[in-house]
Write a structure and sequence with these properties.
The chain has 502 residues and is an all-beta fold. The N and C termini lie far apart (101 Å).
Length: 502
């Protein structure tokens, strides 16, 4: 508080003063509210376009702007008083001789540009205007691809004034703009897909013109999605791999499994842990301009995997990672997962060996324990056999020490017959015939019980050999093998849908 002076203090230079004084205390209270510093900077005015030098036209158009948004303008022709105006400002019917144009901006705070922008020129109607305007098509870019309306923009200038800019497609004018910035929108609804040329033509008051153009592509056709590989029918593998492509390069894909929402994916797409039963995999392509395939490609197949398998693989992972395989090759022997020769699905294993030294190729799977009863099944096809006296092993069973317990094989040049041997006896399955280049499915059931072990072999569901006095030892089966661990025996073997179950 302050004693009340006899003369009130002067008001502050900037701000609002507030004071109050109760009579019984002979004091007053006061405060000052500062509203900030007022805008006192004038705007700058710029003439963007207009006639210069000597021209023949009696018309003139000026475009102008201010460095402060929201400014208003005043214009003056030939020294007359300023009157409110807006850009562009046009004059017509001007006389021959020298002319001047001035424009000044006023900002939102009322500050007026003290140095108006000025343009001077001379009109001489005896000299014809021979200078055409210039124009640049700024949108769309040449080579662009569209599937709907196209926004078009251009810039244009002239030594006197641009009268208008015409926009055309294929030589047909569809829009005209007389004010900068020049633009239009073209709807190609009635135009077939393909290349089109879009042009902008600037014209001045005497009809001189200039053009700029760009060729673009219309694409409103949806791509087709095509499945290249993937499982079909009934398979024993709980995994799957699909490859696919679209008819338009640069397309992206979305995939769906069993009716789930489509989500971004790429080829190849792999699935794992599929339950037994029917499954559907669908994929949908979207081309680079957003056209979506309205009929997604789909593949339906059935999984019938052993529910408690010691080992199972349909090679649908595209590699040997679908089971605990030990893959062994030597020399020119080879073991691959390929898609050219398959029984079901998209992939199968291929094993190949030659008579050359060191050539060997086989897959050996660990059954995770010593199994005294099991059924080993696989679809197999032999495309190459060696000389008479040798054979192509289809299945070999070993104990934990690596001792060979059972071999199912096809004897070379013996009427396509399958043979079975345990550690003591060889048995010919006279009704078991597997011609070259033909798929067959074997099921070998064994019960390990020393010298009274059981072996039951089926080919394509038919029993071809059965015995209850085989010698399979007592340790049990630990490993199952496809292919040949004996080198230098010519063969080419394909295998698919392998399972070893209790």
């Amino acid at each position: 508080t302050t004693p009340i002076p006899t003369t009130p203090p002067p008001p502050p230079a900037c701000g609002l003063r507030a004071a109050a004084a109760p009579h019984h205390t002979h004091t007053y209270v006061h405060n000052r509210i500062d509203f900030g510093v007022a805008d006192s900077t004038p705007p700058e005015t710029t003439i963007d376009s207009g006639p210069t030098g000597t021209v023949s036209s009696t018309n003139a158009t000026f475009a102008f702007s201010s460095n402060e948004p929201g400014s208003t303008f005043g214009c003056s022709l030939d020294g007359a008083g300023y009157t409110a105006c807006a850009s562009p400002k046009s004059y017509s019917g001007l006389s021959d001789g020298s002319h001047s144009f001035r424009v000044r901006a006023t900002d939102g705070a009322g500050n007026v540009d003290p140095t108006p922008a000025t343009g001077t020129w001379t009109i001489d109607t005896s000299v014809p205007d021979t200078t055409p305007p210039s124009v640049t098509l700024t949108a769309p870019a040449a080579g662009s691809v569209f599937n709907g309306p196209i926004g078009i923009a251009a810039t244009a200038s002239d030594n006197i004034a641009v009268a208008r800019v015409e926009f055309s497609v294929g030589g047909t004018v569809f829009a005209t703009d007389t004010t900068s910035p020049y633009g239009a929108t073209w709807d190609p609804a009635s135009t077939p897909d393909g290349s089109v040329t879009i042009a902008a033509t600037a014209l001045d008051a005497v009809g001189l013109s200039a053009s700029d153009s760009a060729t673009v592509t219309l694409d409103r056709s949806a791509p087709d999605t095509i499945i290249d590989t993937g499982p079909s029918g009934t398979v024993t593998s709980s995994s799957a791999s699909f490859t696919f492509h679209a008819t338009e390069s640069g397309s992206t894909f979305a995939c769906s499994t069993d009716g789930a929402p489509f989500a971004s994916c790429s080829s190849p797409a792999s699935l794992a842990g599929l339950a037994n039963g029917s499954h559907t995999f669908a994929m949908q392509a979207t081309d680079p301009v957003g056209n979506v395939d309205p009929t997604p490609a789909a593949r339906t197949w059935t999984v019938n995997a052993p529910t408690s398998a010691f080992l199972a693989d349909g090679f649908e992972s595209g590699n040997f990672g679908g089971a605990a395989w030990q893959v062994v090759t030597g020399g020119d022997g080879s073991a691959t997962v390929q898609s050219s020769v398959v029984r079901t699905g998209s992939f199968a294993a291929r094993l190949s060996e030659s008579v050359n030294t060191g050539s060997v190729a086989y897959l050996r799977g660990d059954l995770g324990g010593n199994r005294t009863e099991l059924t080993a099944s696989a679809s197999v096809r032999i495309d190459v056999e060696g000389a008479s006296g040798a054979n192509v092993p289809l299945l070999r069973l070993f104990d934990a020490t690596g001792k060979r317990l059972l071999v199912l094989y096809r004897q070379n040049l013996s009427g396509n017959q399958l043979w079975v041997t345990d550690s003591v006896t060889t048995r010919t399955a006279t009704t078991g015939v597997l011609p070259l280049g033909t798929w067959g499915r074997f099921d070998v059931h064994v019960f390990v019980n020393g010298t009274t072990s059981t072996i039951d072999v089926r080919l394509n569901g038919t029993t071809i050999m059965q015995t209850t006095n085989a010698n399979l030892g007592t340790a049990g089966v630990r490993y199952a093998q496809l292919g040949n661990d004996t080198s230098k025996q010519t063969f080419t073997l394909f295998a698919d849908d392998i399972s070893v179950t209790p």
